[in-house]
Amino acid sequence: MRLRAIEREDIPRFLRWLNDPEVRRYLTMYRPLSRAEEERWVESLEVVSHLFAFTPAVSPRS
Description:
Elements: E1 3-5, H1 11-18, H2 21-24, H3 35-47, E2 54-56
Antiparallel strand pairs: 1-2
Helix pairs in contact: 1-3
């Protein structure tokens, strides 16, 4: 598996993953995320220097 830093272009994929009920049932999230919430989270990664987030490097159709 190859990892890379999260980018704004990942937001649509993350929303699909995180808003899928089968995925969310194993997370502490209790409601779907909005695009604005996910954008704020990705933007926060650029500000906080001690926080690192990675995503699998997947093909565009994933």
